Amino acid sequence: MGSKKKVHAFVRIKPTDDFAHEMIKYGDDNKTIDIHLNKDTRRGVVNNQQTDWSFRLDGVLHDASQDLVYETVAKDVVSQALDGYNGTIMCYGQTGAGKTYTMTGATENYKQRGILPRALQQVFRMIEERPTHAITVRVSYLEIYNESLFDLLSTLPYVGPSATPMTIVENPQGIFIKGLSVHLTSQEEDAFSLLFEGETNRIIAAHTLNKNSSRSHCIFTIYVEAHSRTLSDEKYITSKINLVDLAGSERVGKSGSEGRVLKEATYINKSLSFLEQAIIALGDQKRDHIPFRQCKLTHALKDSLGGNCNMVLVTNIYGEAAQLEETLSSLRFASRMKLVTTEPAVNEKYDAERMVKNLEKELALLKRELAVHNSLTNRPMVTYDPMDEVQIAEINSQVRRYLEGTLEEIDIINLRQIQEVFNQFRVVLSQQEQEVESALRRKYTLIDKNDFATIAAVQKAGLMDADGHLVGEADGQSFAFGIIPFSTKTGKKAKAKKTFKELSSSLRKEGAISPLSAKDLDVVSTSKTQLVPSAKEGDGKDMLSRDRETSSIEPPASSSPKEESRPPRPSTPPPRPLAFEDFKNERGSEINRIFKENKSILNERKKRASETTQRINAIKREIDVTKESLNFQKSLREKQGEYENKGVMIIDEEEFLLILKLKDLKKQYRSEYQDLRDLRAEIQYCQRLVDQCRQRLLMEFDIWYNESFVIPEDVQMALRLGSSIRPGMVPVQRIVSLGEDDQDKFSQLQQTVLPEAPDSIPFINAKVKTEQKQKYLKTMMGLQQAHRK
Ligand code: ADP
Ligand code: MG
Prior knowledge:
With 789 residues, the protein is an alpha+beta fold. It has four domains: 327 residues, Kinesin, CATH 3.40.850.10; 154 residues, no CATH class; 167 residues; 77 residues, no CATH class. The protein has 23 helices and 17 strands. The strands form four sheets. Strands 2, 6, 7, 8, 9, 12, 13, 14, 15 and 17 form a ten-stranded mixed beta sheet that branches. The chain has a three-stranded antiparallel beta sheet with strand order 3-4-5, with helices on one face. The radius of gyration is 45 Å and the shape is elongated.
């Protein structure tokens, strides 16, 4: 397998009483054939023209019986097909030289049957000898006439081209002819019937369509598929044997062809010369493109010429002197064919059904293995099947109790159970979230900006001034009433989901700021120095640690005890945006300062990185330009042949300078690139610092807000539903759970439009979008007006 082989080329001479003994001579080894042309026998032959040729082939078959021909030519190919190797046997030669006789033989005479029926016999005989395998045989019979495809085994009465023309299709498995019937044959007899039917169709077609059967190519294909009867064997092999009876190879013009005959002749000669081109290309090791698609013949035989198959050519020639010219041309074709290398390989495939069955068996075995293991380790009750509703409900209850604090821990049983626990965490938390939301919704109402009736009512009640500002609101940006951080928008829902993800992930791993740890929150709210994580010794850049020094915080001197800083609780909490401003001037001032500082460092680094990138690109461009001119110089030098005798290159000054410049540029490029890499690492680190600061800031604010202002009874109730969650936690989750994109938008807003009030982001976003839309409409209207004028 995998070893290279050459195409086997044989020549068969048709018996004749008029054999040209003086012109055709065989070698003693039965492999060479010498042709001698007597100059006088041919008119117009120039004196110095070649008169002697010698061809060395794989065998010269003269006076050979059909039996011997089969033994020599086909037996091995067929036998190897049963082992998974594709095989192709082709007969080539001028009309009447014996191609059909060799391939099909005389159908009325058993002894004179050709390669085709013998191959079928051998296949079935070998199947009988291999009881270890289930082998199926299929056959098809294709005729190519004037570049049209005909199915010689079509079950319909043969009337010519079928309604849906057949097409040649290529897929990863190889070539197949769409529309060509392929017949399963379970015994020799069926196969023969099909062959005879095909032969009859060939003759009928020749008569009814008035076509010359010697002008068509016929391809009989035997498809073999062998599955081992041992079920554990997942591989099976496939192969096909192509038996090709080519059209006559004689040249046109000789017999003065006209009209239809000429057209036919042109087609045959074209397809045969394309076949020859393909074969020449196949014989040339340096060629990687083989022109298979030039005609139907080579396209249909694409995976059967050369490649991974065993290939044999029989060249049929006349022994008469009169045909010597054609004989020579046929022998030339044979010797070219002999140069083609093939690399026969077994066609192995995997039986998916068997693989599944084997895996199922393996799975059952492993389950039993687990059961044994469990009983040995005294865990006999564990099952590994998918959970039912009762089991899932039990896990749901465990998770609830765990969150309430009545269950200390949840025992691990198996992987499926762990997955379900996490799943139920998500379910329970989303339920609690919804409960909180609906509790708040009952307490507060969102006022729609355009709902004038409601606004009027609110104004009447003295909760909103005439300009639409909420009482106590600085800029009238927000129309939300009270502390509602929610909206019905689905976007919020998505964010809530993310919160749970974070929550469950924080359940799993310990983060620096686990939102679930009340202890941690206490620490944060009292000791502000922990806000900026201290640098790991030795792993930071100089620049980085300096930045950190400037941004690290001393406890502010003015920091006063909680009780003093807390304002008296008003009956209505102030709007959060406003409160946030206060918070930043009060308890949050230090965090806010650090946040801003880190942020400005981050922005500065980003700017530097972008500048460095630009420089790198500029250098790269210059390198390219320099290289180009250097190449030009080089080619110029090579053209002029400016080499010194001793092989030392002489470079002129210009080229030398270019080389120096290139070297320098490359150095610059490397150094800039190193800088950029360092900067990127620094940016990543700074980004993390900024994110942490933001989270702390918001969290601190929320705690402060809830501590400072009244939280209504029913909200507290709702919050208590998730008893493991501290009051104030849920809003924190909502704020902290800004997505990555949101964070960018968030920082933008913080720098420009928005007073640092994260709750109004959805609102602001909507507003910005509406404004854009209005702007667009205005522009359009303006344009229309202008147009009308
Ligand atoms: P082709 O297919 O090349 O046009 P055929 O196979 O039809 O040629 O052969 C033409 C005639 O010569 C047929 O009648 C065939 O029986 C006969 N013939 C060809 N080769 C042999 C052979 N080796 N022995 C006996 N008869 C042959
Ligand atoms: Mg023929």
